[in-house]
Amino acid sequence: MADYLVIVESPAKAKTIERYLGKKYKVKASIGHVRDLPRSQMGIDTENNYEPKYITIRGKGPVLQDLKSAAKKAKKIYLAADPDREGEAIAWHLANALNIDIHSDCRVVFNEITKDAILDSFKSPRAINMDLVDAQQARRILDRLVGYNISPILWKKVKKGLSAGRVQSVALRLIIDRENEIKNFIPEEYWSIEGVFEKGKKQFDSLFYGTGEEKIKLTNEEQVKAILKQIKGDSFQVANVVKKERKRNAAPAFTTSSLQQEAARKLNFRAKKTMMLAQQLYEGIDIGKKEGTVGLITYMRTDSTRISDTAKTEVLSYIEGKYGKEYLVNEVKQVKKAANAQDAHEAIRPTSAMRTPEELKAVLSRDQLRLYRLIWDRFIASQMAPAVLDTVTVDLVNEGVQFRANGSQVKFPGFMKLYIEGTDDQKEETTKLLPEMSVGDTVKSINIEPKQHFTQPPPRYSEARLVKALEELGIGRPSTYAPTLDTIQKRGYVQLDAKRFVPTELGEIVHQATLEFFPEIINIEFTAKMEQDLDGIEEGITKWVQVIDAFYKDFEPRVKHADEVMEKIEIKDEPAGEDCEKCGAPMVYKLGRYGKFMACSNFPDCRNTKAIMKLIDVKCPSCESGEIVERKSKTKRLFYGCNQYPECDFVSWDKPISRPCPKCSALLVEKKLKKGVQIQCTNSDCDYEETPSE
């Protein structure tokens, strides 16, 4: 019989930890939470200091009984749930269920599942941190008060199955606000003058800068023609040469947010998939040999970029051995802590820098390996020396008209030898060499070409962009991003189109209702302030009851007002213009979780349904009376055509968009390229196009 019982959350890591601790320890898993608020009722006593009513989660009875049985036989019980607020709350619930003194040294935490980390954590057990528990309780109660008060109103006034929440409502607002920006966007004309020059048989590019000392913005063709007329001949004088050495520092090791963003950019992973794979790497993989099952990365829910001294020593040793001393950082890196970061534990990193991705190829799945390589590369690079770039700026002048050429080359690659951080606009550092030039030299213009451009609307949110926006605004926490994005899609509030979020009609309706009656729920500043209040509870500065009470006193009257005043939003069934092929009754359009669909009006006697052609809110450019709809070919390939077919035979493989070409007013389409989505004009005589967006 084991002397000590250790309770963790996941069965996947229980055996590994038991092996590290030895025969005196028995490790069991709670499989997440064992107690929670009831699903069938509010479970919050708003008249009695918001006292929560916790019950055993359905299906967890046998698990809890097994833990109680094991607890009776153990001399000492250790609660080793994950090292965050939620993990602390799980430990507290277990302590209550198993009659463990929460003030005793019963809590152990570790940031990685390695032998040294596990053994070290058991050398310094502590009491349960009630400030952490209270912060998690406050979040859970707050979300329950919001969800269980607003959702029934939405069910009654709009449609059953809807929900509202603090973070999801703000995320939906950001997506809808962005969509409105795009719809209301008016392109502005601007011009550039691009030149190709030659010096010593070597050609290089340069852009018009201005006349005299100041940079000039070109806004129309007349302005451009006047400047071109000012240029005499093809000889330009080198007026100025500026050479500088510039250092570029590596990005820090991953936080939860930056991992989700980079995995989306470089691996094309959804946030949910990234977190699932990261959980597997954290909990442990059997790597064979002498080590067996071991956790390959540190805890993956973190907003910190800190690195432990032990990890730094190991990675610096690896870098010196692999790349040489010149690739080591000369000074200690001071990474600035984000304003709203809890900084509870380390950045996401490999548990050992010596476990290279190449060594793990045989034991990891393809996607596990890709994510591990990303984490490993980023961590190693974060501790490498800065890259050194030689930059050159050259000003070329002809009759007062100034062109500027910029060039750079890598003098020392530093961290760039291993890893370069991705960007949302996909613009990475490129090397562009210029010929050697000195002030007074003459260069020859080979070609000078004016180009017309138009400003572009902001891009729709991809998952990476939305996670970044939520983090920058202080909305939610690392553990909330993936489930938030998942929820707004499952509820049918948004859809992904070309991997970008587009609000649905249902999403617009829910947002408008929430905006009118519960403006604080979708107020960005209010929601960010609430996150700060939760942090204050964790730090012991504020009591959780005070935070909840301050919110609920204003919120409760709004709920009553909305219930009384909000008009029922009737989503009427529109006639589909055809009869049911099963019973002959008229077909109608209905609004479901994933948008509109066609159903028989004779429901429930007839349950015939079918998908409808999706309108994309673009008038047919051919007949001008029809609407463009999505269709699928026999091979399931998506294309676009007029809903007046066969009277109108307009078709396009590329998706038309609602705004016309600003240059010739013809139809614009989204053309999918390897490097992104590019908007192009369909008029063969017009060369208008927009830079591909991620």
Strand portion: 15-25%
Please give the largest β-sheet: 6 strands, antiparallel, barrel
Strand line-up across the major sheet: 8-9-15-14-11-16
Beginning-to-end CA distance, first to last residue: 58 Å
Beta strand count: 29
Helix content: 25-40%
Domain count: 5
Assembly type of the chains comes to single chain
Q: Report the principal-axis shape.
A: globular
In CATH, the architecture of the largest domain is: Orthogonal Bundle
User: Could you give me the name of the CATH homologous superfamily of the largest domain?
Assistant: Topoisomerase I, domain 2
Instruction: Using the coordinates shown, work out and report the CATH topology of the largest domain.
Output: Topoisomerase I, domain 2
Which structural class matches the secondary elements?
A: alpha+beta
Rg (C-alpha, Å): 31 Å
Written description of the protein model:
By secondary structure, the chain is an alpha+beta fold. It folds into 5 domains: 4-128, Rossmann fold, CATH 3.40.50.140; 137-184 and 459-565, Topoisomerase I, domain 2 (Orthogonal Bundle); 189-249 and 387-454, Topoisomerase I, domain 3 (Distorted Sandwich); 256-382, Topoisomerase I, domain 4 (Orthogonal Bundle), CATH 1.10.290; 654-694, no CATH class. Helices cover 33% and strands 23% of the residues. Strands 8-9-15-14-11-16 form a 6-stranded antiparallel barrel. The protein starts with a strand and ends in a 13-residue tail after the last strand.
